[in-house]
Amino acid sequence: MATHDPELRKELDAILQTRTELGPEYEPELMESLLEKLESSVDQRVRRQLAEQRMQVARGTRPARRGGGWGGPDGFAARFGLAIVSLVLAVPLSAIAAGTVGMPGLLVSWAGIVGVNAVHSAGVMGRLRRPE
């Protein structure tokens, strides 16, 4: 993490210390508390970044973005992310399908993986071609 939040760090240290003192039976409550703190911290950062982006757009120092690009819904990052997730999930899916059903199961699992990627790609390409 590039920026460290000292308050969040103090909270984490306190939770870890509390866990060592109280033992693992209080772990669910402690983890829920930590997750609430993290969620609050993330929400605050997102709101701050959005406000900064809006200010930059309002000042004219940064053009407004409409989808596309690296981070847009039809950008390279979304396509690349789906491809990586598909390949990572393909290994266990292939093993399970081939182990339980054999070659037909393997073919069906790979047809599903290819189908999901094809549908996603067709939807992305349709959005890129359609003028707004």
Q: Could you list some keywords that capture this structure?
A:
132 residues, 4 helices, mainly alpha
The structural class is mainly alpha
Enumerate the spans where pLDDT stays under 50 for 5 or more consecutive residues.
Answer: none
Rg result: 23 Å
Residues in helix, %: over 70%
Biggest sheet record:
none
Mean pLDDT: 78
Amino- and carboxy-terminal Cα gap = 37 Å
| Strands, count | 0
Count of helical regions: 4
Backbone shape: flat
Order of helices and strands: HHHH
* Strand composition percent: under 5%
Describe this structure in words.
The structure is a single chain. The relative contact order is 0.06. Helix 3 packs antiparallel against helix 4 (103-129). The longest helix is centred in the N-terminal third of the chain and has 33 residues, at 27-59. It is flat and about 55 Å long. Helix content is 77%, strand content 0%. The chain has four helices and no strands. The protein is mostly helical and 132 residues long.
Task: Please give the structural blueprint.
Layout (H helix, E strand, L loop, with lengths): L5 H17 L4 H33 L16 H25 L2 H27 L3
What's this model, at a glance?
The protein is an all-alpha fold and 132 residues long.
